[in-house]
């Protein structure tokens, strides 16, 4: 069953990304078409093991660039989205980043599905002094802050803090880690280790697995046989966490199980199947849009994005597409405020973002903070009946 689902998602992503290398989207209005286009770049993992992240990101960017152009473009000019598919390969990502700067002459970039591909591309955009809004989770993308690099997802450090807050409330102080060795998994593991002391948590077992591994039962058996473990956390993204979740159930491990925001999409539930029941993770409000209170500041924007995306694609919304929505919106608003396509002026306006209500959270950036989100923008969710629901808290 798991293999069939993975194949279906891969075929779906491949269909969307046919000839995705250099997808160009531009305006339909005759006036806007007469003007020189504003070129925005994107390098995403539309195919490969991270396709269920990159595919909704690509679809989201296309939807909203089309919308911008239907409304007459940006600064009276059409917008072209130049999109490359790196397949999750960091070397390809860097090559495409170089092409965007040298050949395509983009004025900004929204993309970088994974931490590894983002880190490979960052030097290219920093050297060219072109704003780069990443859609990846690793904290090292924005700490320390680099002049031209920003990002929209919460950091892995923030995810660790949210998970540990929940564990503390539930009385868990002795836990195990099983982490992916991909860029995101390694980064989140390291960040979790740095903050465990703040929550009185001890790590009794610390296992890992590779991105291509198809069976994690040996590592999970070690955790199962470690005395005193009260809960397990799996930092990782891509297909690995779904395999871990299935193996976890197969071994009959009954300990509370936490995942990261790196799997916050319906596809994770599909890949993990019934084994996902009861899994907890920190995630943006988008996954529970219909369950938000009317007065919630994010309700309107997350509800509208969910409706727009699902109507356009016929697929359930994911937080990864939401990261792309926030990325393109932050960039467009910065260009509008700058009244210019000068990359440095755009950079300055991105850094000046204040109280932008997005689907991922409410962003306020600063010279030393190129993310602008805190732990309060995370919601602790649980999977019940194959759906996301707000996690119940101890009374």
TrEMBL record:
Pfam families: Peripla_BP_6 (PF13458). The keyword Transport applies. The keyword Transport applies. Keywords: Amino-acid transport, Signal, Transport. It comes from the Bacteria. Residues 1-22 form the signal peptide. InterPro entries: BCAA_transport (IPR051010), Leu-bd (IPR028081), Leu_Ile_Val-bd (IPR000709), Peripla_BP_I (IPR028082). Residues 37-385 form the Leucine-binding protein domain. SUPFAM superfamilies: Periplasmic binding protein-like I. Belongs to the leucine-binding protein family. This is ABC transporter substrate-binding protein.
